[in-house]
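Quick start: read one record
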Amino acid sequence: MAATYLALVNKVGVRLGWDALSQTAFNSPESPHDAIKDFINEAKDEILDELKVDFHEQEFALQLSAPNSTGTVTSTGANLVLTTTGTTLTESVHGTNQFWKIAPDEQDGWFRITAIGGGSLGIDTIPTAAFTNSAFTAFKDEYNLNNTVRQVKSAWVNDGPIDLDF
């Protein structure tokens, strides 16, 4: 899509007689490419705002999952398995394809949980070092949207909007 969008920006610039490599043909501190990009995005937004079809906009609440930090995890630092002690993580709630991640206190970053069972967790990356009985936080920061969602236009968390400018 980026190549197609850039081609559209260039095509509009050529039609307007602007040299895309210089600013001499344009009276603005921003580049002609930026001005064209802004124009196209504003025009797209105006067109979408004029469409009064119900299925173009839909509100729904996303059920968020609370973090879990019960128990400890241990790693040999040599494989894709964390041994668990006293955890309450279950396959049905926190399992594969559920987008759960785990961040042991004794490691930088997090690992995606790929399997749960038998006192262990499968993870997607081998830890950089061994650790024993580390506290952790298991969390979910990715969620599936309704299958009718084609584009998220705005989102709110608690009392404020999330910037979705992309």
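Confidence is low (pLDDT under 50) at residues 20-26.
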